[in-house]
Amino acid sequence: MSKKYHDIRESAYEANMQLPKLGLVLFTFGNVSAADREERVFAIKPSGVPYEKLSPKKMVIVDFDGNIIDGDLRPSSDTKTHAVLYKHWENINGIVHTHSTYATAWAQTQRDIPIFGTTHADHLTVDVPCAPPMDDEMIKGDYEYETGFQIMNCFKEKGLSYEDVEMVLVGNHAPFTWGKTADKAVYNSAVLESVAQMAYLTEQINPSAPRLKDALIKKHFERKHGPNSYYGQ
Amino acid sequence: MSKKYHDIRESAYEANMQLPKLGLVLFTFGNVSAADREERVFAIKPSGVPYEKLSPKKMVIVDFDGNIIDGDLRPSSDTKTHAVLYKHWENINGIVHTHSTYATAWAQTQRDIPIFGTTHADHLTVDVPCAPPMDDEMIKGDYEYETGFQIMNCFKEKGLSYEDVEMVLVGNHAPFTWGKTADKAVYNSAVLESVAQMAYLTEQINPSAPRLKDALIKKHFERKHGPNSYYGQ
Amino acid sequence: MSKKYHDIRESAYEANMQLPKLGLVLFTFGNVSAADREERVFAIKPSGVPYEKLSPKKMVIVDFDGNIIDGDLRPSSDTKTHAVLYKHWENINGIVHTHSTYATAWAQTQRDIPIFGTTHADHLTVDVPCAPPMDDEMIKGDYEYETGFQIMNCFKEKGLSYEDVEMVLVGNHAPFTWGKTADKAVYNSAVLESVAQMAYLTEQINPSAPRLKDALIKKHFERKHGPNSYYGQ
Amino acid sequence: MSKKYHDIRESAYEANMQLPKLGLVLFTFGNVSAADREERVFAIKPSGVPYEKLSPKKMVIVDFDGNIIDGDLRPSSDTKTHAVLYKHWENINGIVHTHSTYATAWAQTQRDIPIFGTTHADHLTVDVPCAPPMDDEMIKGDYEYETGFQIMNCFKEKGLSYEDVEMVLVGNHAPFTWGKTADKAVYNSAVLESVAQMAYLTEQINPSAPRLKDALIKKHFERKHGPNSYYGQ
Q: Is D204 on the interface with C (CB under 8 A)?
């Protein structure tokens, strides 16, 4: 096993182990990867291995075209989706996929999650996008590979930047999140699950609840992300 | 106590102990059994014994006609339902019954759980079937025995295979799941509870949410169960 | 401190400590008592003391008219309700009051909890009764004392036996449960919370879900409570 | 680091550490402060520091105009809101801000939480007030400072006393609570979250559930807060 991938194996391992602690996965229904931009590879959870049996060295090294480079185990079945996103989105170094309860329920409704409050606006200034289910031809083809393109197409059509919006729902499937590090991508998955639960409750309590007004969206985003950002609770 | 049932007692014990860890039972409201096909017997949780006081040797050995073969305690009151299923479904070696919250709520509605997403499709390609409550005559008769037939009749009428669909809701009662091992049957109970919660949320968020389209159902099932299966997250 | 109340102090202490473990209380929003029928007294949680600071000797001994008999602390503010029930219902030896989430929500709706399934029928064959809020004159009077009578009046008007139905919702307030022992009363509180959550979900999933049919109600009750009872999972 | 602020640093630290234990925060989405009325300063959580890395000495000392007096770290981004409330409300010594799930969902609906039961009435005799989102001009200005005034204006317009009502929802944002101590303010945050969840469930179960009647509101408040108070469970 090559030592040159030590750091991303450690990062991917640590980030994967956060998923059960944060209540985001049942059994093995999730995976995290961490990328090395210089080597153009990423370390990802092996397929079907329970979290309690993971270790850094079990992480599989895969290149941005989805080829296995190093490791004894089969990589996660979602590996090609990760590869496509790393290949095309140059500024991300971590990706997370889960089937967390509330985010997945929203994905199953094929609806974007409306921006109802500042918890949401502290992280993104638009509704959480939901990519529509892909065409039957794409499904029959290289499905996990096409899932990556389905996500990118959704961002193009909605005019979104993957650097501003670090999360997506894949319609009828489940969420993907990403970030500058694997840790940040995990953080985004937990934020998404919380935002998804609150939006669900908001609509139940008040079916005509208005979206957050523009001035508040702008303020909350800028205090965290703007040139004079100062946010942190 | 006979040593020849050592293995199924261990399997049944380990599987029963998973139920409280997975949040699927309150008090003793659940039971798991593990079968030995050669001996045509199964080991099942004793009746009314709290999980923290279970041990492998307390598991009761029962044959496929529901007769107690070995053990000092009374078997679970659902024992005859397990016996009927083992007797008629030759390829299962584990059965679980729980009153887990969301699956039981669906059972109480007498509705099948619609297939809304890939979490569901990764495990079965049809709605989770809900067997109707049985006729009054069957209820007055050998109730737990008839529950087994009620489940089998439901599968016959819907044209389902117990090997493809390893779970059922018994109307107004609660879920049963099964599998090639007791561990797999417990896994199915946890998956069912998660799918039941997500389907509930999906309908709350979008009452007109469409069922998963056929191409996605087929893809997700085949990547896990088909001849070229490769699934595992 | 008198030694003659040792046993009920121990019982009340052990039962009170079950409430936080079962997720039935926030802070001190609950209390359990255990009665000694010969001495015609009961031991009850002291008022406002957090569970982690309880001990058997802190339990307060009170007679069936609500007079403090032994103990250094003030008894729970609900003590008079307990006293009234012990005085008039001769066959109970434990009472529990909580503000558990789902049961309290039902109490706030002033609705009985419909019997939707066998989880409910395994414990009682009727809807969980909800006593209406009391008249303003009773509220202005000896409130906690009158709460006991409000519960008893509800049972009289509905023709219920406190031995068959060991739980009640007090409208706009919260649940009370009881039983032959303090442990059984705590068990009933946990069952009620589970039944309340499932009934809530059942109506959300299917607003026209039918009540459990009579044959099933009868069967499930009899297998647990009838002369030939055999229930236990 | 000055020793004269030792006590409020300890109080603020202990109170902050209660938030994750009570399930009221995800990551760092919350903060508690504790005031020293003689020195006219308060100790508050530093910005963006995870709870597991907090210590008393990391608490930042700020005066009632929002100026940092002592400490090496940047104070919570909500510090000015705390400062405004301490400056104008003379009898509070602790403030808590969280994004707890149910209270935040209610804030997102811009609705007051109706008083449906005695759990609510034991703590306040009116609906939990929801301050409307502020005007765009205020948002563009000194936002966190204006949030404090938004809360005070809401209380003035509704004719509420901050000593009787120790909690508020800030519309589209999240709850703030306060009290005579930081511990009491944390207690109020947990009570609010529980009341918010129960009110949500009450309306789901019975959309026409009536508010608690006046006699019960009065009784429950007086037994806890009146001149002859005796409440405690």
A: yes
Q: How far apart are the CA of C101 and the nearest CA of chain D, in angstroms?
A: 6
Asked if A74 reaches chain B (Cβ–Cβ under 8 Å), the answer is: yes
Q: Position of tokens 């995870």?
A: D50
Q: Is residue D230 part of a domain?
A: no
| Type of residue at D95 | I
- Locate the chain B residue with the closest alpha carbon to C121: B173
**pLDDT recorded at residue D233:** 60
Element (H, E) at A35: strand A30-36
CATH number at residue D151: 3.40.225.10
Residue A232 has what pLDDT? 59
Torsion on CA atoms C139, C143, C148, C149, rounded to nearest 10? -40
C183, pLDDT greater than 60? yes
* Residues of chain D predicted below pLDDT 70: 1-2, 226, 228-233
Active-site annotation holds for C187: no
The arithmetic mean of pLDDT across residues A62-81, rounded, is 97
Which residues from A are below 8 Å from D108, CB to CB? 116-117, 198-199, 202, 209
- Chain-chain contact of B140 with C204 (C-beta, under 8 angstroms): no
Question: Residue C209: its chain B contacts at CB < 8 A?
Answer: 108-110
- Helices A182-205 and D182-205, axial angle in degrees (round to 10): 60
- pLDDT at position A79: 97
pLDDT digits (tens, 9 = 90+) for B118-152: 999 999 999 999 999 989 999 998 999 999 999 99
Total domains in chain D come to 1
3-state secondary structure of A162: coil
Taking CB atoms and an 8 Å limit, are A205 and D140 in contact across chains? no
The answer to the question of residue A53 being in a domain is: yes
In a domain, C233, yes or no: no
Q: Which of residues 159-198 of B touch C (CB under 8 A)?
A: 172-174
Confidence class for position A35, pLDDT limits 50, 70, 90: very high
The domain in which residue D112 lies consists of: 3-225
Q: How far apart are CA C137 and CA A143, in angstroms?
A: 70
Task: Check: CB of residue C233 under 8 Å from CB of residue B30.
Answer: yes
B211 at the A interface (CB within 8 A)? no
**CA neighbor of D201 nearest in space, from D140, D113, D139:** D113
Contact with chain C for residue B29, Cβ under 8 A: yes
C198 chain-D contacts, CB cut-off 8 A = none
Question: Within a domain: residue A91?
Answer: yes
Q: D124-156 pLDDT, tens per residue?
A: 999 999 999 989 998 998 999 999 999 999 999
